[in-house]
Amino acid sequence: MMQSALSVTEMPFMTNAFDQFKLQTQTKSLVRFYQEFWDRIDGRGGSGEADLSLVEARLLKFVRSQGPVRMCDISQNLNYPTSTLTYMVDRLVKRGYLERKRDHEDRRAIRLTLTDKAEDYLSKRVNQASEICQEAIQRLDDLERRQLSNLLGKIVAAL
After folding, report:
1. What is the pTM of this model?
2. How many CB atoms lie under 10 A from the CB of residue 119?
3. Which of 5, 68, 81, 142 could cysteine-pair with 111, CB 3.0–4.6 Å?
4. Residue 68's CB: how many other CB atoms inside 10 A?
5. What domains, with CATH codes, occur in the chain?
6. pLDDT in tens, 109-124
7. Nearest CA among 122, 134, 136 for reference residue 45
8. Whole-angstrom Cα distance, residue 9 to residue 31?
């Protein structure tokens, strides 16, 4: 689970205790919303099969962004313990989202690649996320949209 919001003492830039409390509460709400957001997207799938967890989807997104990868690459970049990763990959292979293929340069190594099913799943998820975000942003007026864009830009730059 994600880390909770900063504690009041970790927000020295806020001088007013009420403002600190309000920001802390809003940050916790944002974390909860993020989790519910992806649950909502999974619920829109309509595929009839069990949806993937956020962790599994994150793994698929990593493989998509990196191309064929070795297990050690995933473990190092996503900080998943090897035992958890092995179980998750086995499950994704069994469900048809990943394939294991021999590395052409090192015959001992196995690389993981996405299947068409995984590509379809990720594309659908991105489209659904965009739809949900557009629905939420349409509730804002032009000034609020510009402010949101500026603030998100600053947050992303700080991360």
Report:
1. 0.60
2. 13
3. 68
4. 16
5. 15-158 (1.10.10.10)
6. 889 999 999 999 888 8
7. 122
8. 19
Phi and psi at residue 68, to the nearest 5°: -55, 125
Cβ(37)–Cβ(132) below 8 Å: yes
pLDDT one-digit tens code per residue, 67-77: 899 998 899 89
Question: Nearest-5° angle of CA 51, CA 57, CA 59?
Answer: 140
Beta bridge partners of 101: 111
Residue of 37, 57, 29 lying closest to 133 (CA atoms): 37
Six-digit token pair at 13?
Answer: 């830039």
> Mean pLDDT, to the nearest integer, of 134-143?
88
Q: Across all residues in the chain, what is the average pLDDT? A: 79
